[in-house]
C-alpha cells in the first residue's frame, strides 16, 4: 500500500510539472546559418531545425552540454530537441564549426 501511494504521488507530481503551453518553435538551416541564430523559449518547448539547403548536410550539436554529435541532417531533414530546464544552451554545426547558435530557455 505504501509503495502504491508513493507511486501515485510521483505520477501526480510529474503530470502537474508538465508545461501546459509547450510550443514547437521552427528554425531553419540555410546558407550555412542557423536562422534565427538566437532563440528565447520557455521550459518544455521543442525546437525543430529544418535543413533548407539544396545540397549541403549539417548537424545541430550541443557539444558544451556533453552531447555526442547527432547524425547529419541532409536537405529536407529535421532535428528536434525539447528543453526541460532553464538555461542558455549553445550549439554548433559539427562539419561547419563557424555555424553557431544559442537557445535561451526561461
TrEMBL record:
Binds 1 copper ion per subunit. It comes from Oleispira antarctica RB-8. Residues 1-22 form the signal peptide. Cu cation binds at residues 58, 93, 96. This is Copper-binding protein, plastocyanin/azurin family. InterPro entries: Amicyanin/Pseudoazurin (IPR002386), BlueCu_1 (IPR000923), Cupredoxin (IPR008972), ET_Amicyanin (IPR052721). One of its GO terms (cellular component) is periplasmic space. Its cofactor is Cu cation. It is found in: Periplasm. It comes from the Bacteria. PANTHER family: BLL1555 PROTEIN. Residues 26-106 form the Blue (type 1) copper domain. SUPFAM superfamilies: Cupredoxins. GO terms for molecular function: copper ion binding; electron transfer activity. Keywords: Copper, Electron transport, Metal-binding, Periplasm, Signal, Transport. Pfam families: Copper-bind (PF00127).
Amino acid at each position: 500500500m505504501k509503495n502504491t501511494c508513493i507511486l501515485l504521488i510521483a505520477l501526480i507530481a510529474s503530470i502537474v510539472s508538465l508545461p501546459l503551453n509547450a510550443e514547437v518553435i521552427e528554425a531553419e538551416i540555410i546558407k550555412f546559418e542557423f536562422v534565427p541564430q538566437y532563440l528565447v523559449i520557455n521550459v518544455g518547448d521543442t525546437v525543430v531545425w529544418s535543413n533548407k539547403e539544396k545540397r549541403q548536410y549539417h548537424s545541430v550539436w550541443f557539444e558544451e552540454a556533453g552531447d555526442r554529435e547527432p547524425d547529419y541532417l541532409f536537405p529536407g531533414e529535421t532535428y528536434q530537441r525539447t528543453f526541460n530546464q532553464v538555461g542558455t544552451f549553445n550549439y554548433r554545426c559539427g562539419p561547419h564549426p563557424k555555424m553557431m547558435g544559442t537557445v535561451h530557455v526561461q
